[in-house]
Structures are given as C-alpha cells and as structure tokens.
Design brief:
Elements: E1 3-8, H1 17-29, E2 34-39, E3 54-59, H2 61-71, E4 79-83, E5 93-94, H3 98-107, E6 110-121, E7 129-131, E8 134-139, E9 146-152, E10 155-168, H4 176-179, E11 191-199, E12 207-210, E13 215-220, E14 226-230, E15 234-237, E16 243-258, H5 263-280
Helix pairs in contact: 1-3
C-alpha cells in the first residue's frame, strides 16, 4: 500500500484519538505510505486521487454507505470498513481488530468483493442518484396510500396500493427490505429485489429480479406528499404521476473481506440474534 485515504465520520471520534491511532497503525504497517484524511461528510466535494490503493472508512454502516456512493466511479478503490459506530454490519472489521487486519492485508490474506449499486434517474442525466443499500419510495407521514404501477423491462408487473416500495441490492437486503418482509440475498449475487411496504393487497409480494432489469415505477399519490430516499440518507420530494426509473449502476462498490470473514456468522450475530433480542425487550 502506497496511498491510503482515511474517511472519518467526525461525530464518532470527536476528540480525534481514534484517527490518531489509525494513522499510527497504518504508518507502522506500511512504511513510507502516504495518508490522506477526509471528513466523510465532505467526501463528495473533494477530488479523490486516482492512485489511492485503499479507503479506510471510520464510522458505522451509514458512513460506509455514504462513502461507497461518493467514491464510486473511481477506478478500483477498495473499501475497508472499520466499525466505530453501533451495528457495524457492513464493516469489514471492528476497531479493536485493525492492527491484525492491516497485517493480513499486507500479507495478501484478503479478497475484494464487488457489491452492485443502484442508479435512480428521472430522465435527467445530471441528477443521478446511486444507492448501495436501497431506493425507497414512500408516502409522507400523514399522506393517504399511494397507487404504484410497476413496469419491468417495459412490461407491467403489477399495480397496487400501499405505503411504499423498497428496491434493494443484495447488500441492502438485510436492511429496510428485511424489516418489510423481503428475503436475505447473499451480497455478491447479481440480483435486485422489490419489496412492498404495507401493501393493501396480498397479490403484491416481494420479487427477485436479474440486476440487468430496468424497473420503472409510476406513482399516483393524489397530490399528497411522496418521497424518494436513497440509503436512508438522501431524501427528495417527488411529483404526482412521475415515472421513476431504477437500474443497476455501471459502477460497483468494492469491499475488502479478510480471509477469516464469515458472512453467516456476522448475519447471525448482528441481524438475526440482534432482532430476537430487540423483540424480547
């Protein structure tokens, strides 16, 4: 590693001690490495050097989601997520494991897993939104139910009424989609899912599609409030009868996984058993 970018969520490290320790460990493990530090909130407005070998993300799942969106399009920049937040499901390692993880990376004991990104476009090429987890179309808090017409590759799939829709990647299948009844999808499977939010008909069920599918959604909200949300972070108010088009992005997020990474262990520990604990509280 010659050039490393550290993307820090400053709200998770207000005194800067974690950042100081991470810089020290990276410098010790990779002699002569050049380190650049950027605030994760401002990453999109900063130019990222093409020669970056690794992005170390310090934060939680939300920080990884935002960084993955902001650096996508840059050539082959893998992400090492270091959890200093709460859940940390998307993180590659916990903060306490960083030193041993860097040693493994130095020895080549890791792999790079490509994760698909969704692209949401309203016909305006200059206003493309991308998502690592999901795109959600849902009514406002006090709005009436919404009518959706869903087209897949120009063919009508279904028309239904409900509170909203979740279009998720495999990475996002463990997030909002899971809460709404959608299936778990292994992270590197090349598919997307559509999961309804509180449908008013049993005919509308979650569906798994090839990621090459073009999904078009016409929304009839009777002039009530409706919002499009990307990864639970970016929110845009939509207009009545607007057609929302969602496709797979040509870019990927590249996540570093160490040789002992066990997806099912992480799934049990941070999603399945964690959900059971919350239900029992």
């Amino acid at each position: 590693m010659k050039h490393v970018l550290i993307a820090l969520n400053p709200s998770k490290d207000k005194d800067g001690l974690i950042l100081y320790n991470v810089i020290s460990k990276v410098s010790h493990e990779f002699e002569g490495v050049k380190i650049k530090v950027l605030n994760s909130y401002e990453l999109a407005s900063n130019e990222i050097d093409d020669d970056i070998d690794l992005v170390i993300v310090l934060g939680g799942d939300g920080t990884i989601l935002s960084v993955a969106r902001d650096i996508n399009g840059y050539k082959d920049i893998p992400i090492l997520g270091v959890n200093i937040g709460n859940l940390g499901f998307l993180s590659s390692v916990e903060y306490g494991e960083l030193e041993s993880s860097l040693k493994k990376i130095k020895k080549g004991l890791y792999s790079k897993q490509k994760r698909i990104l969704l692209q949401c476009n309203n016909g305006e090429k200059s206003n493309v939104l991308r998502a690592l987890n999901d795109v959600v179309i849902a009514r406002g808090t006090l709005s009436r139910i919404i009518k959706f017409d869903i087209y897949i590759d120009k063919k009508l799939y279904i028309s239904f009424k409900g509170d909203g829709l979740i279009i998720a990647t495999p990475t996002g299948s463990t997030a909002y989609s899971f809460s709404a009844g959608g299936p778990f999808i292994y992270p590197d499977v090349d598919v997307v899912t559509i999961t309804p939010i509180c449908p008013h008909t049993k005919a509308m069920q979650p569906i798994v599609l090839n990621s090459s599918s073009v999904i078009e959604i016409k929304v009839d909200n009777n002039n009530e409030e409706i919002y499009l949300t990307v990864d639970g972070q970016k929110v845009i108010k939509k207009e009545d009868d607007e057609i929302i088009t969602i496709t797979k992005s040509e870019h990927y997020a590249e996540i570093i996984l160490l040789d002992d990474y066990d997806y099912f262990n992480v799934l049990r520990k941070k999603i399945l058993y964690n959900s059971e604990k919350e239900e029992g509280e």
